[in-house]
Design a protein that fits this description.
- The complex is a heterotrimer of chains A (214), B (434) and C (874).
- With 214 residues, chain A is α+β, with helices and mostly antiparallel strands.
- Chain A contains 8 helices and 4 strands, in the order H-H-H-H-E-H-H-E-E-E-H-H.
- The radius of gyration of chain A is 24 Å and the shape is extended.
- Chain A has a 4-stranded mixed β-sheet, with helices on one face.
- The longest helix of chain B has 18 residues.
- The two termini of chain B are 38 Å apart.
- Chains in contact: A-B, A-C, B-C.
- Chains B and C meet through helix 14, helix 15 and helix 16 of B and strand 4 and helix 2 of C.
- The structure holds flavin mononucleotide (FMN), iron/sulfur cluster and FE2/S2 (inorganic) cluster.
Amino acid sequence: MSRFTKEMETRAYELLALYPEKRSATIPLCHLAQEQNGYLTEESMVQIADLVGTTPAEVLGAASFYDMLHTEPVGKYVVGVCTNIACLLQGGEELLGHAEEKLGIATGATTDDGMFTLEDMECIAHCDHAPALQVNYRFFGPLTNDGFDTLVDDLSAGKLESEVPPHGTLSRVQRKHPIAVPLEEIVRHRRDSDAKEGERLAAKAAAEAKEGSN
Amino acid sequence: MPLPPLKIVSARANDPKNVTLEGYLANGGYQGLKRAVLEMNPEDVRDQVMQASLLGRGGAGFEAGRKWSMLKKSDIRYLVINGDESEPATFKDHMLVESDPHQLVEGALIAGYAIGAARVFIFLRGEFALGFERVQNAINEAYDYGAIGRDIFGSKFSIDLVLHPGAGAYICGEETSLLESLEGKRGFPRIKPPYFPAVIGLYGKPTIVNNVETVANLPWIVKNGASSFTDLGAGRSRGTRMFALSGQVNRPGTYELEMAKNTFRDIIFDPEFGGGLRPGRSLKAIIPGGVSAPWLGPDQLDVVLGQDEVAAVGSMLGSGSIIVMDDSTCMVKAAWRISKFFARESCGQCTPCREGGSWIEKVMNRIESGAGREEDLDLLMDLCDNIVPGVSWPPQQTTICVLGPSIPSSVAVSIKMFRDEYLTHIKEGGCPYD
Amino acid sequence: MTDSEKKLKLTVNGKEVESAPGEMLIAAAEKAGVLIPRFCYHPRLEPVGVCRMCLVEVKGPRGFTLQPACYIAVADGMEVVTDSDKAKKAQDGVLEFLLANHPLDCPVCDKGGECPLQDQTLTFGPSESRFVEEKRHFEKPIAISKLVYLDRERCIQCDRCTRFAADIAGEALIDFEGRGGELHIATFPDKPFASYFSGNTAQICPVGALTTTPYRFKARPWDLEQVESTCVSCAVGCQMVVQSSENEIVRYLGIDSEAVNQSWLCDKGRFGFESVSSAERIPSPYFNEASGMVETGWSQALDKIAKALKSAEPESVAVIGGSHMANEDIYTWVKLAKGVIGTDSVDAQLDDGLDPKIVALSDRATIQEATQAKLLILMAGDLREELPILFLRIRSAAKKAGLKILEISLSETSLSEEAEVSLRYFPGHAEELVNGLFGAEIDPQLFAGDLQAARALVSSVDPASVVVVGGRENLADSSLDPERAIAKLLDTLVGSKFLSGLRRGNVNGAIDLGMVPGFVPGRSQLQAGNEALRAKWKTLPRKAGRNSKEILESALKGEIKVLFLLGADLISDFSDSALAEKALSNIPMVVGIDTLTNRTTSHCSVVLPATAFAERHGSTTNIEGRVSTLGKKLVGFSLSRPEWMIAVELAAYMGEDLGFENLHDIWGEIQEVSQLHRGLSIAALGAPGAKEGIVVPLSASKVQISTRRVLDPIATPGITSVGVSGPPSSSAALPGEGDPVLSESTYSPQRSKLLELLAQNDRAKAGPEADNFALVVSKRLYDHGVEVMSAKHLSELVAPSKGRVSPKGWGQIGLNGSGLTRLQGNGASVELELVVDPSLLDGVVKVEFDGALGEVSKLFGVDNSTSRVKMEKV
Ligand SMILES: Cc1cc2nc3c(=O)[nH]c(=O)nc-3n(C[C@H](O)[C@H](O)[C@H](O)COP(=O)(O)O)c2cc1C
Ligand code: SF4
Ligand code: FES
């Protein structure tokens, strides 16, 4: 299933309501679609375009800009090995080479069983644990080759399910609160408080001027 | 002699309970916000920040107080917290959001109060999944606690805060690109003028963009007063700063140090911090301030870790990262990898960066893999010159944003510092370190 | 002094240059003769400054720095250097970067020879490439629509096409995909670039990345010849060049006319050129005999027609059509019909327009005035479907300049999104709604929309600053109701102006020149008499004539003996095709004068071949009353002749002399007899600065020919590259050069209250009925009409007509999922696909007119009251 399920649709509307302009929800909705389907299907992009008021070409145009958004199916676990400078210095490239061997696929590919996709990552901000990697954006490191094998085996055996949700789940914690105060009300309030601030600043300036002249 | 660390933003980082509201409150959390909204007017908070000389921690080092004062008058203005942290080898914000999410929320709310933001957005790098969960949880708790929403802490001040995920693009750390992304578009940096989001920002409204660490300082500043903050540090660099130390050192990690009081030598070699290099190794080069910055050599170890001090030697403190490279490292390879990063991360909208970046990467790759030609070095320097006229520092630019001008840094500086190594690659037809 | 009149001074390369605030440096420099190289900059698009080709040195607080000239607004005292070593190095650098990944396939590229990348490389660029790496690869050209090919390897990511699609056309169907070096243009999978405006992207693409299918591999720029002309595909009158190679038209390109099309064309106009060389062209005169069509000669044909005319009473002769003809043809035919034969039964409209009194007798607005009005009231069909470039102009004005729009329509249109308020009405109730707008009580069942807001909107503006665009939205209903509504608006809003929403090519010129019943040339009513006319015309009709519907109805009664069809394919195009078919078989002599065989030609007794667009000179008149020239680029096809010549010769066969030997003579007489056209000399029309046309009547304030916008060679590359090699673009019959002779016209509209001139509307005003849906039939850009069907590539775009109903209607018919529905009305039954349209009132079904298929027009009848249909699911 590719369009949002009823439940996901509810969440989609909650997300849309967080922004002064609907289009801002594009990326959160793309994440949501990935949470449901693992990747961005054409149908879901069409639906997102509809929800945020753009064209599907614009949703694709935005989504394709971002590394985390996949428009092709990916594995249940997307393993991204960092090879950027800090990890490179600590053997990131070698780890990626080993990962290719262990998983039996080239970088960028997905295992036949649909379990793993391997990616070559730019810095994942886990440099003090270099060489580091991420699985569905959950970070691991420093990793030896053996450590990598154990990780993959554990993932395959379903031992890390509580730690690493399937690809696409950005956050297991969801926002509980809708927007509490409508923007129009805030604007009215800010107008008032700006006016008061203006008065205070003017009074202060007047007092200072008086002091200065004394 | 390094000074003992004094911690502001990472003070609670090691307390695992701190990620919950309960833990955070037990650690004295939300006192700054309470004080701000209940006892101070917004302009008082802004004064404090102005006096604190709080330099932005996102890279450019622009004073937060001054930035706020440039905010154009408008009924609607926004605050956006930049948590995109993707600069290679920078991981301080990562640490801060994961270990002290409430501090971020509190700091963001104080800033929101000070500038009268209509809404606050925290733009968090998409890959920080754990951080996202923790900050989202902190936001949920903060709403329940009355720190966000209507009439916070009974102060008549109302504000909403939204956590927004990035989706994996380094350029979205650049503030205008971040705003585009937040508007649901490709992360194309906006062309200047207007020069600052403070004039035209999110949805065309005046907007302040501040880094995570910048606002994380606010609870402390409001609680302890600006003068306690300026008691620390020297010159323009006040308070403390998070440094992310990585590469070939014994103890990579994040270290919060008083500003302008320590040197590169201190942070790399002091046993409390980096703990020195691996046995038998010697230092070859340091990359300070993120990979956009020119490298420094071992002779510059005694440069002080302050904004102006590092700038004085032709580099920058930038995002506060320090990459250490010892003598086992191939400089061509290191420079190539950095050029590859920029080629991958260029947004692609303007020509010099899109085409120049990938061209340079291709030539660098060719040299590193042994297919280089001697004239490639001149070619590289000329390509650099076409992106940064004069290959100067701070860079002039031919591009829309400063990602482009960052491309030549490593290439040009490594050719200058390690020309021999390049020539060896070319003459031997391969990498001597492989 | 307004801001834009203020002058600033800056120096460019040491030379002082004047400019106005807000102008971009690149444009200011260009006026001073300094061409700064550029790719992404286009004068009609918002600047984005992405290509960085235009980097120049600008002095600022930190000395000279490199700045994009296309993105920097001029400032007083600004110092700019565009040719320093540093600026040159930066420009060279950018060019080299652009070429790095560009395939050097110029020899096989349609853009070769007119390519800004190629040209600027020659002018500014490096001699050889230092790029030895593997170039970027993409699958070679892919068709992103039936009309446009995309070659991603050639693309230089200038953002022109995407900006056009998103900002100008408002349909972001193409966008960038990917990032960095991978950034490329893309459409969404399975969602082609199906825009009415797609051809513009190919026109402005500065490389050969976007090319049009009909032009692919057709010609090389250096083999092209061109002439400037006016598009007559609809009545906006877009300025364009016609380019040909070896006596075949190969493409049209839009000219940057500030007043009209601002360089854009719609795809129907742009790609309509294929019909000129269609296999359906009529090569010679034909007689229709029992055995079929028999070729004949001009003299036999004309002789036969002349004989028939001589034996016919004036009132039994009628002329239908002519709205596609040049002004000179129209005048000649009007003179023949009204001034020689003496019949007033002449109608250029096919029952799909408005009462000519509204168009002729109201104060007229220009497009510019409409876009700058304080309030624009739309009471026309969907402008995107009917007058596409007017739609673009209005949309831009609403988006960028905050033009306020009040829309009064039967259903949502493409401008609804831009409208401040949209009011909907039940078919037949437009007049009541307008009365309601001015305060009357109205029956809420028959309307939708925020009437209060509309009232407030109307009363908030000075009536004299309102422009009403009036057209015909519904073919299945009498035109009287919308006519009265429009008249009421114009009468009540004293001082408001009218912009014609009539869509047929030169229908507005036809009205201006009296090719409608009740009128003579010069927007004058027949009974008003006209001294100048009497001097030139042998006679004047004794009786007011019939309109086209009445002509056909009279034919049923045997009252019509000779009928001329001037490019009028009645069976396809007349709204009641059944009536047309019956009437034609009841007329002894039907003369069809046309360029293409169509469904009606086989019903004609005599068929005469007319020359097509681009095969003849002349002038045409657009919705504003703007007269502009038609260019001739080809010799006439086979034995075809221009329509004016046919009229002159036919007169001669009747023993009459119309007095015309060429277009000069005709135009000269038009000026004499028509106060409306007085002062508009041929020399003025042909003057270089007047190429975008001149609005009639000339008035003191308008008697000025604007200086022409300089053609930016990189904005529309295909035009300048040819301009130099072809023959002089001014036409022979309308000599161009010389001092424009313009004098003020003496014309003043003879209007009092428009409403009083119209018939009373005493039809029963019915509302929604339980199982009888009120039928709305609307026009769309691509239908099965001859014009579209004879242009090969356009014909592939015609989709089956669809119908729309409100959600309630949808439920009523019991549709779910599929909408295949049978509509029954007027004794006919038609099956089509229905979709849900929440903007429709309950009880209404809206169907797209299908042109030559003639199915839809069977559904509504002769009496023209609100048509009703029954619907059932299939
Ligand atoms: C290419 C590029 C990447 C950047 N990445 C980040 C980033 O990841 N986080 C950040 O806070 N600032 C980043 N910046 C700096 C921001 O544009 C901006 O200056 C900063 O967020 C302002 O916050 P501050 O004033 O609190 O430092 C980046 C700038 C550039 C040009
Ligand atoms: S296809 Fe042409 S117009 Fe579009 S971005 Fe590429 S070069 Fe520019
Ligand atoms: S950046 Fe100015 S023309 Fe492209």
